Amino acid sequence: MIWTALLAVTLQSAAPAAAPAADSTPTCAQDLDALDGKLQADYGGFRLEIRGARRREFDRMLGALRRRAARAAGDACFEALQAYADFFGDPHVFIWQTTRLDTAETSRRAARAERVALDADDALARFRRDAGRLDPIEGIWYAGRLRVAVVSDPRAGAGHFTAVVLTPDTSVWQPGEVRARLVRTPDGRYAGELLERNFARRLVRAAIYKRVLLRFDPGVWGKETPLSPADSGLLDAEDPRRATLAVRDGVPVLSIPSHDPAYRPWLDSLLAAQRDVLLNADRLVVDLRGNEGGSSTMTAALLPYLASDGQRPPYLPDRGGHPDGGKGVMLSSPDQVAFAIRMMGGDTTDPSAHRFLERMRAAPGGFAPFADSLDPPSVPHPVTQVYGPRRVGILVDRGTVSAAEAFLMQAMRSTRVTTFGEPTAGALDYQTVSIVPILPNERRWRLGYPTITAHPDLPADGVRGKGIRPDVALALAHEPDPIARVAGALAAGGGR
Fold first, then answer.
1. What is the chain's mean pLDDT, rounded?
2. pLDDT tops 50 at residue 13
3. Would you state the pLDDT for residue 10?
4. Confidence class of residue 385 from pLDDT cuts 50, 70 and 90?
5. 444: which residues sit within 8 A by CB, 6+ positions away?
6. What is the C-alpha to C-alpha distance for residues 355 and 416, in angstroms, rounded to an integer?
7. How far apart are CA 440 and CA 26, in angstroms?
8. What is the mean pLDDT of residues 465-474?
9. Is the dihedral of CA 225, 481, 158, 137 positive or negative?
10. How far apart are CA 155 and CA 161, in angstroms?
């Protein structure tokens, strides 16, 4: 019961402690030391994986970063802290940037906003003129009411881009103001700065998935134009995180960009409205490319359309396969105990919950299992099969992360399902993120880390650094129409 409740939540933020008025902003060196202490105490992946040669590599990295932090401030300090988090290769370990501003500071920044003489007609004319030479990021993008034109900035040099507001998402923004500046990085991604609705500045690293999703983590923009016919219909026209269902050449294509549980009612309604389409379809394509994760419960209504009478074996990343639920553990630390209590809603009177907390408190620095001999055996909730599409293709890429991977693991057990694309992000070994203060008086940045360890034998049978490999590998960058490729493979017999 505890395991299920915790897995259903992907992000929890501890309330920052109030700092005394006399406290000053910590130095970068202080931040790095505190960050290192927090992660070593709270992150199961450190305890299980930073050993031997990997420990020596870590010590060299930390020594270099300490020398860097000794002279760093501002953006340079953030980059040093992020470099520390990047060492672990876990998408669930990151530096969270605080973006709170009071209204007076927002007004001051709005008055100094940078402006560019560009409107939608100008942007579209540019895109038509440079058709065939555009960078993938160039175009009109949207998120809710916000519409921006991302155009090249030759004055800043090749590979530099500016996002200019066309339609603002709040009254403090005006058309023509610069919302972001980005530069293409050698790995084909983008880095730079983004201004939030309140003009708070955030350093970002962004990536484009399925050619129409620009993900900032957190934050998603959808591409409005220019689009190829192969990429149309994959995003909702108002909110790029909402699921869509379009029929292409008689094949339903369900695109799910997010597992954020806030979008579960939308997906449930969409599946209910399209029930007849699904029941009468011979094939179904589920597009999970770029799915940002969220909650594993978000796609519960889809599972009956994928379930089969028999089951394939569990996915085998190494020798014995990634275990199904029931073997989860939690590293014990004060932050972790506080997190577990929050996840229980503060009610620790349930006997199972009480025993788990006792195990946590009795094993500081060690791992506590979620279940004990007094807990009833964990029995997966049965999925009632809906006899709809005989063959289902699930399309994934390196942007398919976290809860989307958990859904994928479950779907892959079905004999109706074949997976296509590229290995996923590999963010299942350590799950369910908590965001905690680095230091009581550090108001700029916080630490995000995963609280739950899937099983105590990691990294054996884990997917971190490897991802979940699809049944049919596709080089997506060279596929003009991945959806058509999957639909064709399903028609030919499934692809496996």
1. 90
2. no
3. 47
4. confident
5. 25, 78, 97, 98
6. 41
7. 10
8. 94
9. positive
10. 10
Domain positions in the chain are: 103-225, 229-322+380-428+463-491
Report the predicted TM-score, pTM, of the whole model to 2 decimal places: 0.91
Closest CA relative to residue 413, chosen from 316, 295, 278: 316
Cα–Cα distance, 192 to 161 (Å, whole number) = 9
With a cut of 60, say whether residue 8 has pLDDT above it.
no
* pLDDT tens for each residue of 429-465: 999 999 999 999 999 999 999 999 998 999 988 899 8
Is the Cβ–Cβ distance between 35 and 444 less than 8 Å?
no
Structure tokens given for 491: 């028609």
Q: Where are the beta strands (DSSP E) in 278-423?
A: 283-287, 329-331, 367-369, 391-396, 417-421
End-to-end CA distance of the chain: 36
Q: 229-322+380-428+463-491: same fold as 103-225?
A: no
pLDDT at position 2 over 50: no
User: Judging by DSSP bridges, how do beta strands 329-331 and 160-167 pair with one another?
Assistant: unpaired
Determine the residue type at 473. Answer: A
Concatenating the DSSP letter of every residue in 75-124 gives HHHHHHHHHHHHTT--TT-EEEEP----HHHHHHHHHT--B----HHHHH
Q: How many CA atoms lie within 13 A of 485 on its CB side?
A: 18
In the predicted model, what is the mean pLDDT of residues 172-195? 96
The sign one gets for the Cα dihedral 168, 171, 176, 177 is: negative
Q: What CATH code would you report for 229-322+380-428+463-491?
A: 3.90.226.10
* Domain topology for 103-225: Lipocalin (2.40.128)
Given a contact cutoff of 8 angstroms between Cβ atoms, the answer to whether 220 and 293 are in contact is no
Q: How far is CA 307 from CA 315, 337, 401, 459, in A?
A: 16, 37, 22, 29
Please report, as a single letter, which amino acid is at residue 350: D
- What is 199-259 written as a DSSP string? --EEEEEEEEETTTEEE-SS-EEEEEES--GGGTTSS-SS-TTS-EEEEETTEEEEE---B
User: What are the tokens at 487?
Assistant: 């639909």
C-alpha gyration radius of the chain: 24
What pLDDT does residue 344 have? 83
Task: Tell how far CA 349 is from the center of its chain.
Answer: 33
Nearest-CA neighbor of 342 among 38, 6, 95, 7?
6
Residue given tokens 């229980």 in the structure block: 344
